[in-house]
Amino acid sequence: MLKRTDRHILAGLGILLGLLLAGCGGPSSSWPGIQVGDSTLYVADIDRVLAVEAASGQERWRFPPQNGAAGPCQGVFHATPAVADGVVVVAAENPGTGESRLCGLDRDAGALRWTYPPADQPPLGPVFAGLVTDGGRVFVGTGDGFVLAIHPATGQALWRTRLPEAGRGAPRIWATPVLSDTLLLVGTMDHRVLALDAATGTLAWPAPFQARGAIAGALALDGEALYVGAFDDHLYALDPATGRERWRFKAGHWVWDGPAVAGDRLIVGDMSGQVFALDREGRPVWPRPFQANGPVRARPLVVADRVYVADEAGWLHLLNLADGAKLKSVNLAPGRLLTPLVAVADRVVVVPTGGPFRLVAYHSDLREAWKLAR
C-alpha cells in the first residue's frame, strides 16, 4: 500500500489510485512515452502511436491509422515503446479494466504484425513501465507483478515470471527496468529492486534491495553502478551484480526518476523541483541545487556541457553543466512536462502532457525548431 502522502502527490499527477490499489486500474490521464530509433521518434501518446521524423517533425505513420481500427490493440498507449529490428512494440491498455496487450507494429509503416496474448487468450495486467529490448528480446513489467520476455519478430513469449510478494500484495511495477549484461533489473512499488536472469527469468540476486519508499521511475545504469530513485527522498547507488548498496544521497523530496549520467557527474531532480549534480560517490558538486518552477519527475538530459530540465509546471530549463547556472527557460504551459526529453538529429524534443502540441523540438539553445499539433 502507498502511504497517504504518496496518494496526495500521485493524485495531483492524475492517477486513479483507488483503482491502482485495488490492482485493476490505470492512469486516467497519463503521460506519453517516447523512444528513438535512428532519426525517428516513436511516441506512445495516449490515443495513438506516432512515428515522427526528428529533424523535420513530419509524421511518418500513426497507429491506429486515420479512420482505421486497432483490432485487439484498441485502447490507450502510454508505456515507452521498444524499438527492435523492424518492429516497434507497444502496450495497449483497456482504460476500463486496466488490462493490456502487447502489439508489434511494423517499423516502416505502422501496420499491426502481432498481439500478445492473442485475442482469444486472457490479457496481461496493466503496463505502466517502459518496454526495453536487447534487440532479440523485449522485456515487459506489469502492474500486477509479472515480468516477461517477448520475441519482437513473432510476439512469442520466451518466459514469464511472477515476482515474489513482500507482504504488500502483488509487487506492482511502474519503473522501467534496465539491462545489465545478463541481468534484467526491476524496481517495484513495494520498495524493492530485484534482478532476473534475462535468458530465463529466474531470480539472480541473493536477496532484493530494499528501499524505504516506492520505486516508480526508470532505473539508470552506467556499467559500474545502478542508480535508483525512491519515494523515501533518496537516490541510491547499487552494485548491479549483487544488489548491495554503495551509497545513498538525501534529496529534498521524492526522487521519481534515475539520474542522467554525464561523465563523472550524475544529474537528478526531485519532486520539490530541485536539481542536483553529484559526483560518483553521491557528493554534491554544484554550489547549490537548481530550483525549477515545479516538480521534476522526468530525468534531466545532458548534451555536451548543457543540462536540460523539464518540470511539471510546463517549463523547460537550460543549465550550465559545470555549475548549474540557468542559461535560458521556455514555457510550454498549459502542457505539463512529465516525460523525459530526448536528443536526436541535433534536436532536443519534449512531449507535453496536455496543451495544443504532441511534440515540440528545440535547437540546443532552446530556439524552437518545430511543433507537431494534436
How would you summarize this macromolecular structure in one to three sentences?
The chain is mainly β and about 375 residues long. The chain has helices spanning about 5-10, 15-20; strands at about 35, 40-45, 50-55, 60-65, 80-85, 85-95, 100-105, 110-115, 130-135, 140, 145-150, 155-160, 180, 185, 190-195, 210, 220, 225-230, 235-240, 245-250, 260, 265-270, 275-280, 290, 300-305, 305-310, 315-320, 325-330, 340-345, 345-350, 355-360, 370-374. About 50% of the residues are buried.
Polypeptide structure, described:
By secondary structure, the chain is mostly beta strands. A hairpin with a 5-residue loop joins strand 7 and strand 8. Strands 1-2-3-4 form a four-stranded antiparallel sheet, with no helix packed on it. A four-stranded antiparallel sheet has the order 5-6-7-8, with no helix packed on it. A four-stranded antiparallel sheet has the order 9-10-11-12, with no helix packed on it. The longest helix is centred in the N-terminal third of the chain and has 9 residues, at 4-12. Residues 1-29 have low confidence and may be disordered. It is globular. Helices cover 4% and strands 39% of the residues. The protein has helices at residues 4-12, 17-21, and strands at 33-37, 40-44, 49-53, 59-63, 82-84, 87-93, 100-106, 112-116, 132-133, 138-141, 146-150, 157-162, 178-180, 183-187, 192-197, 209-210, 220-221, 226-229, 234-238, 245-250, 260-262, 265-269, 274-278, 290-291, 301-303, 306-310, 315-320, 326-331, 342-344, 347-350, 357-362, 368-373. Among the domains are: 1-30, no CATH class; 32-150, Beta Barrel (Lipocalin); 163-250, Beta Barrel (Thrombin, subunit H). The two termini are 36 Å apart.
